[in-house]
C-alpha cells in the first residue's frame, strides 16, 4: 500500500459521431462535472470504487448521455440498461443487464458486487434484487427523452432493423480511477444501441469487454460498437498489452486497431495505470472525455482539441 499516490480520475461520455455545436456545450459541462465530482471524492480520501460510481452517477442522471436518463430506446420503445463496476484491489466485480425503471444502474451493479456472491444479474432477477435492496423504481417516462423518441423513429424509418454503427450510438458513459491507497477501479453504464432487439446485451456489463480493473496493472473503461468489443474482449486485451510492457497509448492503439481491422468496429477507451499515468484513445469520430490529476482538469471532445484548466 502506498499512502502517497496522487489520485487520478478519467471519465468518458461515449464514442460518437461529430457532435453538434449546441449539444457540445451541454456534453462538455456534464463530462467536466463528472470528473470534478469523482476527483473530489478521491482528494477527500474516498476509494477508487466510490469515485467511479460517483462520476458515472452524474452522467447517468444527465439527459445528454446514453445511460440512465437519456438512454437510447430498444425496438419496442423501452429503455433497457447495462452497467458494470470492478474493484482492482481484489478483482471483485458487479454487473447488471437489461434493467428497467431504475435511475442508476451503476449503483445496482455495485450492490451486486458487494452484497451478493455473484457478479452478474440480469432482467427480472436484477429487478427482484433491486427491490430487495430498497432501490426505488421510477416510471419509464423519467428515463425517456424526446431526443431518443425521435432517434428511434428515425432509425426505424431509415433501417427497419437494429443498427450496429457505433458512430450513431453515442453516449455510453464510463470512469476509471486511482485512489490515494493505490487502488484502481472502473465503472461503465449504457442504454446500449438504438433500436436494439429486446433482450440484447452489449459489452458494457461484461467484465473484460466493458472494462477491467487490476491493481497490478490499472483500469480501463470502453465504449463503442458492443458486438465488436465483446468479440475482441477490448478491455482485457488492452490491459494485457500493458502487462506486456506497452505504454497505455500503444496498448490502446493496438487493441482498437485490431478491432477495427478484424471487425470494422469503432470505439474508444480511457485508461489509468497503477502508477497514475492516464490515456484516452478512440477510433470513432469523437469521444467526450475529461481527466483530473495534480489539480489540473484536462478535457476534449474531438481529436484536434484538448484543454487544460486548474481545478477549483
Ligand atoms: N455507445 C456505446 O458505447 C454502446 C455500447 N458499447 C453498446 O454497444 O451497448
From TrEMBL:
Quaternary structure and interacting proteins, as annotated: Heterodimer of an alpha and beta chain produced by autocleavage. This heterodimer may then dimerize in turn, giving rise to a heterotetramer.
Entry GO CC: cytoplasm
UniProt-recorded Gene Ontology molecular function terms: asparaginase activity; beta-aspartyl-peptidase activity
A biological process from GO: proteolysis
Reaction(s) the record says it catalyses: Cleavage of a beta-linked Asp residue from the N-terminus of a polypeptide; L-asparagine + H2O = L-aspartate + NH4(+)
PANTHER family: ISOASPARTYL PEPTIDASE_L-ASPARAGINASE, L-ASPARAGINASE
Keywords: Autocatalytic cleavage, Hydrolase, Protease
Binding site for substrate: 200-203, 223-226
InterPro entries, per the entry: ASRGL1_meta, Ntn_hydrolases_N, Peptidase_T2
Active-site residues per Swiss-Prot or TrEMBL entry: 172
Tagged with keyword Transmembrane: no
EC number: 3.4.19.5, 3.5.1.1
Family membership: Belongs to the Ntn-hydrolase family.
Protein's UniProt name: Isoaspartyl peptidase/L-asparaginase
Record site feature (Cleavage), residues: 171-172
Gene3D superfamilies, sorted: (Glycosyl)asparaginase (3.60.20.30)
Taxon lineage: Eukaryota, Metazoa, Chordata, Craniata, Vertebrata
Amino acid at each position: 500500500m502506498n499512502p502517497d499516490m496522487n489520485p487520478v480520475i478519467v471519465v468518458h461520455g461515449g464514442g460518437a459521431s461529430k457532435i453538434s455545436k449546441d449539444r457540445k456545450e451541454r456534453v462538455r459541462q456534464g463530462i467536466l462535472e463528472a470528473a470534478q465530482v469523482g476527483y473530489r471524492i478521491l482528494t477527500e480520501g474516498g476509494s477508487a470504487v466510490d469515485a467511479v460510481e460517483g462520476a458515472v452517477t452524474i452522467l447517468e442522471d444527465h439527459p445528454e448521455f446514453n445511460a440512465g436518463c437519456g438512454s437510447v430506446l430498444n425496438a419496442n420503445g423501452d429503455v433497457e440498461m447495462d452497467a458494470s463496476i470492478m474493484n482492482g484491489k481484489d478483482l471483485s466485480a458487479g454487473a447488471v443487464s437489461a434493467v428497467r425503471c431504475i435511475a442508476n444502474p451503476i449503483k445496482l451493479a455495485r450492490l451486486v458486487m458487494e452484497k451478493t456472491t455473484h457478479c452478474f444479474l440480469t432482467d427480472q432477477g436484477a429487478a427482484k434484487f433491486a427491490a430487495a435492496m430498497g432501490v426505488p423504481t421510477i416510471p419509464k417516462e423519467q428515463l425517456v427523452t424526446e431526443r431518443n423518441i425521435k432517434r428511434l423513429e428515425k432509425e426505424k424509418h431509415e433501417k427497419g432493423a437494429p443498427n450496429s454503427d457505433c458512430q450513431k450510438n453515442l453516449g455510453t458513459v464510463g470512469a476509471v480511477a486511482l485512489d490515494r491507497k493505490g487502488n484502481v477501479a472502473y465503472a461503465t453504464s449504457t442504454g446500449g444501441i438504438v433500436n436494439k432487439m429486446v433482450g440484447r446485451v452489449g459489452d458494457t456489463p461484461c467484465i473484460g469487454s466493458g472494462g477491467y480493473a487490476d491493481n497490478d496493472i490499472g483500469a480501463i473503461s470502453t465504449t463503442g460498437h458492443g458486438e465488436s468489443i465483446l468479440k475482441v474482449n477490448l478491455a482485457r486485451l488492452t490491459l494485457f498489452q500493458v502487462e506486456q510492457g506497452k505504454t497505455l497509448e500503444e496498448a490502446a492503439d493496438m487493441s482498437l486497431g485490431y478491432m477495427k481491422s478484424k471487425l470494422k468496429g469503432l470505439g474508444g477507451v480511457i485508461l489509468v495505470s497503477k502508477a497514475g499515468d492516464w490515456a484516452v484513445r478512440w477510433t470513432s469520430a469523437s469521444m467526450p472525455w475529461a481527466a483530473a490529476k495534480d489539480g489540473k482538469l484536462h478535457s476534449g471532445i474531438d481529436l484536434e482539441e484538448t484543454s487544460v484548466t486548474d481545478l477549483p
